Amino acid sequence: MLPEDLSPFFPNASDHPSTEDSPHIEKRPLANRKEDSSGRSPIEVPPAADLLGSSKRRKRSRNPRVLYPGSTRRYLPAEQTSKAKRCLLLLVGIICFQILNAIENLDDNLLKYDLDGLERTMHREVFGQPLAIESITALLKDYLATHIHNKPLVISFNGPSGVGKSHVGWLLAKHFRSVVGHSFVLHYFTMHHCPDNASSLACQLDLSEKISDMVTQAEIEEKIPFFILDEVELMSPALLETLSRFLQTNQTNEFLNAVYILISKVGGKEITDFLLQNVSSDLPRPQSEVEELMTSLRPVLSNVHPLWGFVEIVPFVLLEKNHIQSCFYEEMMSEGIYPDTNHIEHLASQLSYYVEGGRQYAIMGCKQVVATVNLL
Q: What is the per-residue pLDDT for 105?
């Protein structure tokens, strides 16, 4: 029962049983009771832990599943189109278009130089060097496809005398003069431009000035210059050192956009020995043998001068007897002499040959063909 002082606040208190009469109401100690400041009887307050525990129990008892009436249909939320996804697809389309446009620009650059026509010309006029021609064409196509480069293209033609190195150089000079103009093709012959009686310093200054002027003018007109240097084996060490400075990568941009062709007999003996040691009666030499030859040839060339350590080496191999006969045929046709087959075979048999594995390789190549035809 409540005290009489609290009866106004609990008008129905008489209807409820007292804590003493009810066996289900727990009696709590006075520690959990609070007294009013007026000195009235303490009011029992349940502990906070019990309140929290009851609230957790109520939360756990909730069912998280959403129940739908059996008579209605369930619908998934409508998908909303994302503007970010559209922008991403647009960006991918732009990138793909730029890639295709760049590929078309590369093709346009190659069409301007007509390298396919150059390759056909070399195959038609140069005998016995199909792998060398394919290597030269591949290097030129890879380099000339773009306008910006991180180093100049330097190709070295190496091989014995009379195998077509200088003839390929002449064909390259003729072709690129028709493409980029005479002003951007330098065909340099060491014996002509730097004879024995000329001073080494004068030769260095002359070559350096020729290269610098041509490169500068080519940069202004946005063209790539071509330097075809023949008889490199006759260059003095000082002149080779001057040339090597233009072949480095640590130069200004205009000197990186240039093509250098070095033609020499350096390494000719090593190429001849390798070919005769690996000759067989099978069909033409595979690419693996050519790569093995270049691997063994590079240290020999680097010992002559370090500039051969960072160039693209294209070896020219010995010519067989049937190639010599083709040389006679072309030379006789150009001189207006009827190319009788028996006469050609007789002329070709007068030259000297290496004989290995049932094959005949001309010691001097086609070098003696012109002199022989002139005597007819």
A: 52
